[in-house]
């Protein structure tokens, strides 16, 4: 039985382009982001991937990426479930600020701590640990059963909500998780064992197939 899970970070958004903290705000994809999403679909088509079900967040940049991928695959009719548990990390008072502006307001060291620490949230926002606490239970309860039953599953979401899933899937420590790069529009394909561990995974942004020991 094939137990395949594909994670895709959304394509470039309008606020990514402007170097703004985005969080739960809802900008659309840029032209580049649309092309990144289409290219993700083309890469998956070249891999022979066909989806049985898809999950995405409540934010348009992830939803459009999902739609564009499925369109490239000729699978626009695939059932897609949207849930805010897969939304990006909430950046609180940083939301909407240019990263340079944030450093001027709070200081470079403080902003770096909020961005790169695992468990220190920005004012009024979420830490990465908080995002894990919200996204991971949803994954285990709502998404994983489909994968383990043999349904090829697509999750199109955000850098930090996907890291929350990757932390468990790839058995990463918090420090390793902070260093895990996720490129916009680059699918990561996981092959899972019956006990929900990962047999192997491929990041289509890179050349290697990796086995989880």
Walk me through what this model shows.
This protein is α/β, with parallel strands linked by helices and about 210 residues long. The chain has one domain (about 5-210): Phosphoglycerate mutase-like (Rossmann fold), CATH 3.40.50.1240. It is built from eight helices and seven strands, in the order E-H-H-E-H-E-H-H-H-E-H-H-E-E-E. The protein has a seven-stranded mixed beta sheet with strand order 3-2-4-1-5-6-7. Strand 2 (about 55), helix 3 (about 60-70) and strand 3 (about 80) form a beta-alpha-beta unit. The model is unreliable at about 205-213 (pLDDT under 50).
Key descriptive features of the protein:
213 residues; alpha/beta; 41% helix; 2,3-bisphosphoglycerate-dependent phosphoglycerate mutase; His_Pase_superF_clade-1
Low-confidence stretches: 207-213
Order of helices and strands: EHHEHEHHHEHHEEE
User: Would you report the number of β strands?
Assistant: 7
State mean pLDDT (0 to 100 scale): 93
Amino- and carboxy-terminal Cα gap? 21 Å
Number of helices: 8
What Rg is obtained from the alpha carbons, in whole angstroms? 17 Å
Give the overall shape, derived from the CA principal axes.
globular
And the CATH topology? Answer: Rossmann fold
Structural class by secondary-structure content: alpha/beta
CATH superfamily, please?
Phosphoglycerate mutase-like
Q: Order of strands across the widest beta sheet? A: 3-2-4-1-5-6-7
**CATH architecture call:** 3-Layer(aba) Sandwich
Q: Count up the domains.
A: 1
Strand content: 15-25%
Report the CATH C-level class: Alpha Beta
Largest sheet: 7 strands, mixed
Helix content: 40-55%
């Amino acid at each position: 039985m094939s137990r395949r899970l594909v994670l895709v970070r959304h394509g470039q958004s309008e606020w990514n382009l402007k170097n703004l903290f985005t969080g739960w705000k809802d900008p659309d994809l840029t032209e580049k982001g649309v092309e990144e999403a289409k290219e993700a679909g083309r890469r998956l088509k070249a891999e022979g991937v066909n989806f049985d079900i898809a999950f995405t967040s409540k934010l348009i940049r992830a939803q459009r990426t999902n739609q564009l991928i499925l369109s490239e695959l000729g699978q626009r009719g695939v059932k897609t479930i949207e849930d805010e548990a897969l939304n990006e990390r909430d950046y609180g008072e940083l939301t909407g600020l240019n990263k340079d502006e944030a450093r001027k307001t709070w200081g470079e060291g403080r902003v770096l701590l909020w961005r790169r620490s695992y468990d220190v949230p920005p004012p009024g926002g979420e830490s990465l640990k908080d995002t894990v606490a919200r996204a991971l239970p949803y994954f285990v309860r709502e998404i994983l059963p489909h994968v383990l039953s043999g349904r090829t599953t697509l999750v199109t979401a955000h850098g930090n909500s996907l890291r929350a899933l990757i932390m468990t899937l790839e058995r990463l420590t918090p420090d390793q998780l902070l260093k895990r790069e996720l490129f916009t529009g680059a699918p990561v394909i996981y092959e899972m064992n019956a006990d929900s561990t990962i047999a192997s995974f491929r990041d289509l942004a890179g050349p290697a197939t990796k086995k989880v020991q």
